[in-house]
């Protein structure tokens, strides 16, 4: 069985919701041991919309995931584990 090394949460947004997404991502990085990526203004990689990546370890998924669910204010958040075998 693969071991989970960390998680990525991708916050999706568009021009109208970019500032809302920035505030959410910056607040997550302020409150938790989360690394905030760039605010992309185009789809990057497999992501269908503009996005910002939040990276964090498995030890905080139990607090980061519920927090994102409660404070996303309608933004779509896609989360996946990192195993090193992607």
TrEMBL record:
GO molecular function: dioxygenase activity
Gene3D superfamilies in alphabetical order: DOPA-like domains
SUPFAM superfamilies, per database record: DOPA-like
UniProt keywords, alphabetically: Dioxygenase, Oxidoreductase
Protein's UniProt keywords contain Nucleotidyltransferase: no
Keyword Oxidoreductase belongs to the record: yes
Source superkingdom: Bacteria
PANTHER family linked to this entry: AFR070WP
Protein name, UniProt field: 4,5-dioxygenase
Organism: Pseudomonas helleri
């Amino acid at each position: 069985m693969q071991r989970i090394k960390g998680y990525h949460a991708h916050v999706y947004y568009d021009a109208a919701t970019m500032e809302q997404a920035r505030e959410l991502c910056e607040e997550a990085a302020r409150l938790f041991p989360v690394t905030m990526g760039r605010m992309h203004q185009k789809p990057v990689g497999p992501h269908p919309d503009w996005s910002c990546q939040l990276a964090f370890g498995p030890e905080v998924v139990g607090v980061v995931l519920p927090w994102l669910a409660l404070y996303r204010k309608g933004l779509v958040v896609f989360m996946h584990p990192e195993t090193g075998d992607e």
